[in-house]
């Protein structure tokens, strides 16, 4: 069936999530397809930041740590994020950045699995995970890393009785490929290994079931699909069954059993509390809190159905309308094993993305030659998809991307 703009508009009319878009402050004339890198701003977040700043910080000053619940935010918000990733309360904290949480989780897993010295990860991982693993290895002589794509083609082939921990991305940041969390976790456990799942591209993008899949540790961002705001703190999940024995190396006072006892030595607090380190960014936590109010209203299965429909439509339209211009789909064609993003390869990828951004279609570029588009069902409409492909078609058809000004590179791509 040929898809036209009328069919696309009908999809928007039937969309049960369509009402959420007006809760976001999206600029006129922009089609935003980069919510997998930085989620859009909610009007409610502005109000919440203003309240936290003007009233609580400005007027109540230090009293707000108690009075406004500031001190408890990492764990209260943790439980609210936990609900979105299939974690029962008491297992998730919102704190620090994903990189630090990878470090903590890896250390904790190695500490629980003494006598084993192998970390399995993906060569195609989001690089910070590998960099942090290198940092962990530097403090633990004899520990080594085995990488998918380097030491074997599939991660499954790297897991054996010598492996302490498997560090793996739920959705690949570049290709959008979605892993089978349940099967991989089961395989790792059968070999006596623990798993750390990185949920940066799945939290808020699709249903995640950490408890049901028996996951050991998980980490992820809140500034992507969860719309927490630029630099919003990340989360860490530690399964209840590990909390008593697990220890983490960044043993700061916020994780102490009695932080205001000001004792000389560290005594890790109970449960997930121990995974905190130091003072947290309250204004950022409050912006996230407003976003989580919206998430409380959202049915994650509706998010998933719309996400698959948006990405399927995008692929279909790009291939139908821009197919002649050498854009090659990267990642799964089958929506059920795809996250909420679509990537294409092209030798002019950087320039093509710059030309799109100049025309108000914002996606991003990932080196060396990928253009990447994120689809956020809360505020991306089917008409947005249509418009984006229209602009892409124009940029390809006219060759506008070849203009030399599009080749100038910025620090953040
Ligand atoms: C975005 C992202 C990160 C970011 O880590 P930060 O420490 O929050 O900067 C980590 N891992 C993955 C898979 C990501 O996509």
UniProtKB/TrEMBL annotation:
It catalyses: L-kynurenine + H2O = anthranilate + L-alanine + H(+); 3-hydroxy-L-kynurenine + H2O = 3-hydroxyanthranilate + L-alanine + H(+). Keywords: Hydrolase, Pyridine nucleotide biosynthesis, Pyridoxal phosphate. It is an enzyme of class 3 (hydrolase). The modification N6-(pyridoxal phosphate)lysine is found at residue 224. Pyridoxal 5'-phosphate binds at residues 98-99, 126-129, 198, 201, 223, 253, 279. GO terms for cellular component: cytoplasm. Belongs to the kynureninase family. HAMAP family: Kynureninase. This is Kynureninase.
């Amino acid at each position: 069936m040929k898809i036209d703009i009328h069919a696309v508009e009908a999809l928007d009319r039937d969309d049960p999530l369509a009402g959420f878009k007006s809760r976001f402050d999206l600029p006129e004339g922009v089609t935003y397809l980069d919510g997998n890198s930085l989620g859009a701003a909610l009007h409610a977040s502005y109000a919440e930041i203003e309240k936290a700043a003007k009233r609580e910080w400005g007027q109540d000053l230090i009293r707000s740590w108690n009075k406004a619940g500031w001190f408890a935010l990492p764990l209260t918000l943790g439980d609210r994020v936990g609900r979105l990733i299939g974690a029962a309360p008491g297992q998730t904290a919102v704190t620090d950045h994903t990189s630090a949480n990878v470090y903590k989780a890896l250390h904790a897993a190695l500490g629980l699995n003494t006598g084993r010295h192998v970390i399995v990860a993906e060569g195609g991982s989001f690089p910070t995970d590998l960099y942090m693993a290198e940092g962990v290895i530097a403090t633990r002589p004899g520990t080594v890393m085995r990488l998918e794509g380097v030491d074997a083609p599939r991660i499954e082939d790297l897991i054996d009785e010598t492996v302490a921990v498997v560090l793996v991305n739920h959705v690949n940041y570049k290709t959008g490929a979605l892993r089978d969390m349940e099967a991989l976790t089961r395989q790792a456990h059968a070999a006596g290994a623990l798993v750390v799942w990185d949920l940066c591209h799945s939290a808020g993008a699709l249903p995640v079931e950490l408890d049901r899949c028996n996951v050991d540790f998980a980490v992820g961002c809140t500034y992507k699909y969860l719309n927490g705001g630029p630099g919003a703190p990340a989360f860490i999940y530690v399964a209840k069954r590990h909390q008593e024995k697990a220890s983490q190396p960044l043993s700061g006072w916020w994780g102490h059993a009695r932080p205001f006892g000001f004792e000389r030595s560290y005594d890790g607090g109970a449960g997930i509390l121990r995974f905190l380190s130091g003072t947290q960014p309250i204004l950022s936590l409050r912006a996230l809190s407003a976003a989580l109010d919206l998430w409380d209203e959202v049915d994650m299965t509706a998010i998933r159905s719309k996400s698959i429909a948006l990405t399927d439509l995008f692929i279909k339209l790009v291939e139908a309308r821009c197919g002649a211009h050498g854009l090659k789909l990267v990642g799964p064609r089958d929506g059920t094993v795809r996250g909420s993003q679509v990537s294409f390869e092209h030798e002019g990828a950087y320039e093509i993305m710059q030309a799109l951004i100049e025309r108000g279609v914002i996606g991003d570029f990932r080196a060396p030659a990928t253009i990447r588009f994120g689809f956020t069902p809360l505020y991306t409409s089917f008409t947005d998809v249509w418009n984006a492909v229209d602009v892409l078609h124009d940029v390809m058809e006219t060759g506008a991307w070849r203009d030399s000004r599009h080749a100038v590179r910025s620090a953040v791509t």
